[in-house]
Amino acid sequence: MVSIIDNRPGPKVPNPFNMAEHVLRASTLRHPDKTALQIVRPTGAERWSYARLLSAVQGCAAGLVKLGLAPGDRILMRLGNQVEFPILFLGALAAGMVPIATSSQLTKAEITPMANRVSPKLIVVADGISLPDHPAPVISDLEIRAMERLEPAEFHQGDPDRPGYIIFTSGTSGTPMAVVHAHRAILARQMMHQGWEGLGESDRLLHAGAFNWTYTLGTGLMDPWTVGATALIPGAGVDPGQLPLLLKRFDATIFAAAPGVYRQMLKAQLPALPRLRHGLSAGEKMSDETRTAWQAATETPICEALGMSEVSTFISAAPDRPAPAGSTGFPQPGRRIAALDDAFNPVPWGEAGQLAVDRTDAGLMLGYLDAPQTTADRFHGEWFLTGDTVSISEQGAVTYLGRSDDQMNAGGYRVSPAEVEAAMAKCPGVTEAAVAEVEVKPRVTIIVCFYTGPDVVDEESLKAHAAAHLARYKQPRAFKRLDALPRNGNSKLNRRALRQMGLESSVP
């Protein structure tokens, strides 16, 4: 038997369709006065009911039309964790326009080429956030809030496959790509509500990420609103050390964050969290040490998920279906996946292969903006190629082995960074470990282990630990202590930066 899992059928896709209407209309009709959103801080919270949120979104749609924008026009969002972000995002979708979510941390030098790539007709900015060098007109977040008072616009209806929104890949291994998603992408998230999140309308879900990240946009905002739950989002300036207090004070039942945030929170004394049922993790693989420490401190499990900007999360553990030890979880209901060899044929159960998703998946991107060849390169026959290397057990559990483009080559052997990092993280004196293949002279590369810890660890001790836990060809040949591992704005490990550090260091 070969590694193909078919859990279809997926969700039905209505036509015509509008994503913003799907997210807010039904929940508002059921619970108009219920709290949809709280932006929480240690000093209090800003609360928005479903009725007010829907009114603001439709008012924003009317305001954008009044500015002369038309369906299909692109709007570049330069906003932080503030209520104007979801109002503009859903307001643009409601009007048939295409919002482009970007990180508020990007500098002018970083956002300018991105803006030039997407050619926005409008840019919306908050104070203190960098603007691109671009000729599009600019309005402030205050002008978006003022649109709340306008007569609500009707939802623009159309083909569910028309462009809905654009997000950028993290760019950890190169130039960020503009990913175009259709309005129908929201329907694929129905498969996550029970296949990963365990989410119902009585829940209060606190997400620790930035609004621009698809993990936050989906799991932190769109999913709670679709089912009628309450979204709790930390306000600007809230640091990980304050999150335990917010979880307790605002009665969070589900917590979502990247593994790095869990690690930082565990450094503090966690209070009793009697309302918390479970945590959600995505963005990178969580270490066994972090998972075990969290479960011991909170008596709650963590459900991990694997996904990407191009298709969101589609492999996951769930509260009622935990992942077997060492694996990420299972394909969600409605998904069809496979592990493929270099000839794009499914590999046998248990063997390593490239993770592929059925190209008809409702959550799959339309493509990379103005990059037809790059888009075509990600497809082969019936499959979308993720670039992730996994193995799939006969029981259907998926074990993540690393990014295909992060795979290291040691003497002709392919080595998974995740495997080496898991081993080195257990070395005494090492807090976190990350590895990369570094070129030390022309056409000569070695595996370098970068680590954090209170002090420099004796190199012989590191080598001895590696020898005791890893095959010879997997062992790092050099080690370098850092004050902190490089991460992007979404707390993902930046391997490209690691490789650059290695090139700039005096590695032998």
Summed over residues and divided by their number, the pLDDT gives a mean of 92
**β-sheet strand percentage:** 25-35%
* Content-based structural category: alpha/beta
The largest beta-sheet arranges its strands as 3-2-11-10-12-13-14-15-16
Please provide a brief summary of the model.
This protein is an alpha/beta fold and 508 residues long. The protein contains 15 helices and 27 strands.
Tell me about this structure.
This protein is α/β, with parallel strands linked by helices. Among the domains are: 18-36 and 49-157, 3-Layer(aba) Sandwich (Rossmann fold); 407-504, 2-Layer Sandwich (GMP Synthetase, Chain A, domain 3), CATH 3.30.300.30. It is 28% helix and 27% strand. The protein contains 15 helices and 27 strands. It has a nine-stranded mixed beta sheet, sandwiched between helices. Strands 1, 17, 18, 20, 21 and 22 form a six-stranded antiparallel beta sheet that branches. The chain has a four-stranded parallel beta sheet with strand order 5-4-6-7. It is globular.
Task: Provide keyphrases for this structure.
nine-stranded mixed β-sheet; globular; GMP Synthetase, Chain A, domain 3; 28% helix; Rossmann fold; 508 residues; 15 helices; alpha/beta
What layout of secondary structure does this protein have?
Elements: E1 4-6, H1 19-30, E2 35-41, E3 44-49, H2 50-66, E4 74-78, H3 84-94, E5 98-101, H4 108-118, E6 122-125, E7 138-140, H5 141-146, E8 163-168, E9 178-182, H6 185-188, H7 190-197, E10 204-207, H8 214-227, E11 230-234, H9 243-249, E12 254-257, H10 259-266, E13 278-281, H11 288-298, E14 302-308, E15 312-316, E16 330-331, E17 336-340, E18 352-358, E19 367-368, H12 372-377, E20 379-380, E21 383-392, E22 398-403, E23 408-410, E24 413-415, H13 417-424, E25 432-441, E26 444-452, H14 459-469, E27 478-481, H15 495-504
Parallel strand pairs: 2-11, 4-5, 4-6, 6-7, 10-11, 10-12, 12-13, 13-14, 26-27
Antiparallel strand pairs: 1-17, 2-3, 8-9, 9-19, 14-15, 15-16, 17-18, 18-21, 20-21, 21-22, 23-24, 25-26
